[in-house]
Every structure is written in structure tokens, then in C-alpha cells.
Amino acid sequence: MTCNSCGTFPNETVFRAKGYELVRCSGCGLAYIANPPSIAELRQLYSAAASYHAELCNPSSAAFAQQDQIARRHLQVTQRSASRGRLLDVGCSIGQFVARAHDAGFAASGLEMNEASVEFARAHYRADVVCGTIHDAPQVAGSIDVLTMFDVIEHVPDPLGDLRKASDLVAPGGLLVVSTPNIDGLFPRISLRFAKTLDYWPHPEPPYHLYQFSVITLAAMLQKAGFELIETRHYAIDLAYTFGQPTSLLRSPKRLFYAALFAPLAVCGPLLGQGDWIYMTARKPL
């Protein structure tokens, strides 16, 4: 499998997990799964039959509350560069951000490939959400003022193709806001040095995350897709998501030790401009 960004092959192995091989492009540095699941397997992974997003569809669940907090952050970052306009959220899950963006004054709509999540978004929020990927978007070219892709770009088989489609949909002068894990963040970068010895590195999360971006590799891909980067912001992924809930850690001394050793790096990363979760805002030239 050649690099999606620059077409280079071969590449160096970074880490192996669950039968998948994470490699880094020797040309541009992009990291990706060299033996990814097939398209049919990916559709199954993200289906209701596989219980994907099932917990999110329960408003009383902890996952729902956590995702709503994340939706608030998505809106805060988006509002740094835009306050109104036609907004399309690609990979909108159960529609929490779409609903918040609508309440904030955007003409907001969404795309989501999980049918159960689409049904929930429509029923619970009365959100304008369509089932499909960015390539199924019903909007015409150049009609979107703000296109958002939160924690989506690492999941898709052809990220450059999706970003080019985003460029096609966004109006000249319009914005693209993307979030994704950062493989060059302080925690993933330092913990990778011990990953092979410990046979444990929670950052890659195969087979869901097909790509692992850094600020450099994502900025390069945005430029190739026709965007100009205007801002990058660093955050930490929720510690419970990365290291596990406190109750589960207490039952596993090894995982508790790992969390005690590396969680401080995850917390400090954003303060040093090396967070393990990044937002990048880009503009389509006039």
C-alpha cells in the first residue's frame, strides 16, 4: 500500500497491533495501516449490527454526556473563525455538534454513515442529517461556508480524496475545521519508545484509525487538497479514553503503572504545543 499523501513506497514499520501493521511513509512521514480492513469490513465495523455508537444513543449514558462536552469544544474552536453561515458536519455521529451549531446561529446539517446514529439525530435533535460519507453529500459544489470533520479523517480509506471533496463543497473563502489525534504529541511520541518492549501502545487504535496524522503531515495534505492553514490548536485526549476508567485501572496494576507513568505527559503535551489531539482550521482561497 503506497502513501495516500505522496505515493511513496516502501515505508518503515512503527508498531504492530491486533494483526495490523502501522507504518510511516519514508517520503512525507504520514503514518498509516499498511494492511487495512476492506471497505466491506469497514462498513461492518461502523454499522449498528456491530453496536457502533450504541451507547451514544442513550441520553442517560456517560458516553453521551462526554460526547456532548466534546461537541461544546468543537463549537468553541469553530466559533474562533466563524459565527454564522451554511455548515456541514461530516461524520456527525448522533448530531450533538450539529444541534449546538444550529442553536448558535449556523445553518447546520450533517452526514453520518451509521444509520442508527442518523435516526437518533433526526429524532432526538430534529437535526438535518443524511446517511452517507462526504462523497454522498447532497450539497452542490461551493455551497458550504464551514465544513467540519471532527475525529473523522483518521478513519477514512482515502483522506486526501475526502479533503479534496471537502474543497469542492466549500465556497471560496470558506473554512474547513478538522480534529484528529496527533501521533507526534508528547505522550504518543515518548510512549512509542517503550511500545515494542511492553507490546502496548494505546494511541493507534487499529483497525478504526487507518491513519495517524501529525501537524506536519495533516498541514501538507490540507495544502494538497487546496486549503491554506490558518490555525492549529493542541488538546489532550480524555485520559479515561486513553488509559481506562479509574475502576478498571485499580484492577490492573500494570495498566495503573502505565497510566501513572504516561498520563502526566498527555496532560502536559498541550501546554508545550505537543498535544495528542489537534484541531486545524484552514481556508479555501478566494
Give the overall form.
Answer: globular
* Helical percentage: 25-40%
Output the radius of gyration.
18 Å
Q: Provide the succession of SSEs.
A: EEEHHEHEHEEHEHEHEHHHE
* Biggest sheet record: 7 strands, mixed
Q: State the CATH architecture.
A: 3-Layer(aba) Sandwich
What's the pLDDT, averaged over the residues? 95
CATH topology descriptor = Rossmann fold
Strand order of the largest sheet: 6-5-4-7-8-11-10
What does this structure look like?
By secondary structure, the protein is of the alpha/beta class. It has a single domain, classed as Vaccinia Virus protein VP39 (Rossmann fold, 3-Layer(aba) Sandwich). Helices cover 36% and strands 24% of the residues. The protein contains ten helices and eleven strands. The chain has a seven-stranded mixed beta sheet, sandwiched between helices. Helix 6 runs antiparallel to helix 10. The two termini are 35 Å apart. The relative contact order is 0.14.
